[in-house]
Design brief:
By secondary structure, the protein is mainly alpha-helical. It has three helices and no strands. The longest helix is centred in the middle third of the chain and has 22 residues, at 24-45. It is globular and about 35 Å long.
């Protein structure tokens, strides 16, 4: 996901912004942490994953 974001961009600008501020390995750990928290929350609540809605700039 990080390599794709570096080459093509992404709908999640926080990854690109993080890569601009931090090393790639630090960004990878941050992404893994975020994914782990998301999976834990889904499992704890017994819900299905819903793709986050990204606000479009007008």
């Amino acid at each position: 996901m990080i390599r794709f974001a570096q080459r093509h961009g992404t709908r999640r600008p926080w990854i690109v912004q993080l890569l601009a501020r931090r090393a790639t390995k630090v960004a990878a750990v941050a992404l893994a942490n975020k994914m782990a928290r998301l999976v834990w929350a889904i499992m704890a609540k017994g819900e299905r994953y819903r793709e986050p809605v990204v606000a479009q700039a007008a």
